[in-house]
Amino acid sequence: MAEITCIGQALVDCITRGIEPMVEGKRVHRAKSISLSIGGDAINEAMVLRRLGHDVRLVCGLGDDLAGRMILGTMTDMAIDCSLSDVVAGRPTPVANLMVEVDGSRNSVNSDASMLGSYLPDIHATADTKIVSLASLFRAPLDQKESVITLVKEAKKNGCLVCADTKIPTFRKMTFEEIAEILPMIDYMFPNDTEAAFFSGKKKIGEMAAFFLNAGVKHVIIKAGPEGSFIYGDNESFHVRALPVEALDGTGAGDNYVAGFLSGLLRGFSLYKCSQYGTVCAASCVQQVGAGGGVQTRKEADALWEKWYCD
């Protein structure tokens, strides 16, 4: 049995950090570093949760190619269950181009390989697990209405907590309204402030949160980068500040936050401590290049939480 099942994007990131102006007289840019790492919301969550000591299942679509083999090899090495992931020859595994500025902010370029063809996650992924995390809701493979509705209904039938980290749609355009019937089945939703504004049409954090709560979502956690996170539920709301660390690369920070938060849920933490634990994981992530460079063990994460919140 997997404690948590992460469903969503899996890809390889090509991260270019600190691009300098073009060299005069030459068609070339210089950069501080260029590196490859595996990523995507579902993988980022799965890796952090595994390092935090949880049994994790990853459900994603991959190609039988170099990028796909990089992902599967890493998942196997980390003892993450990929038995319900789908590997198909001829389907390209998505590769994303990430340009990271000196301040850690980033822009990305994605190809239509990220649509994953006709791949749909296996509904059996919601069996024998405590939490189902829809790690990239509104992007493939979680951007087809009937599939998303079926997954969430099956998860609730199986007694799972359902969590969803959102993305702004790129290629397919599933809308928030199209999945209205299952929004009350989502226990925790994690949009960042840009995504919350996109879906709600609102400008203020409180108004954005009210939009999700009025749609039936049980708790909404709005991630706001250097402004921290804003947590809203039926009975409480509060703000957790970001930690004052130097940001090197923001890639995967939101996914690390979600993973830390979900680890807290699995360990029975209060909502407030879940938010703090997510904040610790995000802060550790941004001090490294790539989504997988943050906390490496539960002991390390616990020590960081004690350092920042107990000293």
Give the structure's gist in a few sentences.
This protein is of the alpha/beta class.
Task: Name the descriptors.
single chain, 311 residues, alpha/beta, UDP-N-acetylmuramoyl-L-alanine:D-glutamate ligase, 8-stranded mixed β-sheet, 4-stranded mixed β-sheet, globular
Strand and helix layout:
Blueprint lengths: L1 E6 L3 E9 L11 E9 L1 H11 L4 E4 L1 E3 L2 H12 L8 E3 L6 E6 L5 E4 L19 E9 L7 H13 L3 E6 L21 E2 L3 H8 L4 H10 L4 E5 L5 E4 L4 E4 L12 H14 L4 H16 L11 H12 L2
Helix pairs in contact: 1-6, 4-5, 6-7, 7-8
Task: Give an overview of the whole structure.
This protein has 311 residues and is an alpha/beta fold. The protein has one domain: Ribokinase (UDP-N-acetylmuramoyl-L-alanine:D-glutamate ligase, 3-Layer(aba) Sandwich), CATH 3.40.1190.20. The chain is built from eight helices and 14 strands. It has helices at residues 41-51, 66-77, 145-157, 193-200, 205-214, 253-266, 271-286, 298-309; strands at residues 2-7, 11-19, 31-39, 56-59, 61-63, 86-88, 95-100, 106-109, 129-137, 161-166, 188-189, 219-223, 229-232, 237-240. Strands 4-1-9-10-11-12-13-14 form an eight-stranded mixed sheet, sandwiched between helices. A hairpin with a 5-residue loop joins strand 12 (219-223) and strand 13 (229-232). Helix 1 (41-51) crosses helix 6, helix 4 crosses helix 5 and helix 6 (253-266) runs antiparallel to helix 7 (271-286). The longest helix is centred in the last third of the chain and has 16 residues, at 271-286. It is globular, with a radius of gyration of 19 Å. The model has no long low-confidence stretch (mean pLDDT 92).
